[in-house]
Write the structure tokens for this entry.
Amino acid sequence: MVRNKYFYYLFLLNATINLINYVPRILITDRFDGALMSILVSIPVGTLIMFGFIKLIQKFPGQGLPEIFQSVMPKWISGILLVLYGLGWYFSSVITLVSFVDITTRYISPDVSPYIVLMGFLAVVALSARLDSESILYGLEMILYITVPLIAYMSWRVFSNPYFSWDAVRQIITHAWNMPNYGTVAAATYIFTGYVNMVVFNRIFNQFRVRYIWAIVAVSIVTLLISIFAPIGILGAAGAGGHVYPAFSTIDALRIRYFIIERMIYVFYVAYMCLSLVNSIVHWHVGKELILGGFGLTGDKGKSMDKKRKIEWWILVLFSLITFGTSLIVNQYILNDMAIVFLDVRFAGEFLLIALLFYAVWMKRRKRRKKA
């Protein structure tokens, strides 16, 4: 069993990934059309969804979503739902991995084949996703201890830069009262979505409790403001919208004066390569466990465990082939569209997840009353 602090690590992993991937791009695209109001709306909405999920999952100590659904639903319904949620969560890692390969080609090593880079990433992610849940959380803890201080330092360097344009930030703030839209709110609420990993990791928590919701809210606000204002301050209110990866373009404009590495982007790249790989490992692990649960493979002893181990290899091979195939087909425009569709569907899927957990709690109480 693990301690409650690992829940905060799962949230923090998802929050830090928000600084580089598709969320800043979506927010910056709508910077004149309601992005700030969307952020303002996303904070209470995301907090309420996360709080509701926490309260509901606490009713099922030591159980993951497969065990919960199978105890209150027919097998075929729970199986379909688990497979869909597993594929949905895995799809997030596809976008992350393909995007990071594109980032590697653009900013770090344009001469190396992106497919070689991707195969290396896939080997690390697929093999690590087979580890038990506790080992993955311990690895996540070490990575966060290394990367979060670096990210905090680089964020400070951005906002303390003499060339940072506060006038550009003020220009965006003048559009703060423009009406939000569904897509931008869905993107902004993704920062809270790390809690979804608890659908599997809840199995290994002992008396799961979350006390410092205010700290999660504070980190969410700071992260969202950094993700939109840092590129705008460095690249300009108009210029920020012309970059595919605003965070990397922003960091590429900075340098380290008194360090062995002059370009800060190399430090930024290494930090986010580690975070992207760990994020994908967590998502593949959760997606794999949900799909296995959808096929009724939740046993951890004897023949059931042996069968589960064999089938999970096929699932991870399939995950790898889909990711590699996606990298062959998509370009940056299709990838951006995929990210938008994923965020929109994910937002609706989280409301459905809350409703399903409400139903599970209601069914659990109903069975208790019948027994009494």
In short: The chain is about 75% helix and 0% strand. Residues 301 and 308 are 10 Å apart (CA to CA). The mean pLDDT is 88. The longest helix spans residues 332-371.
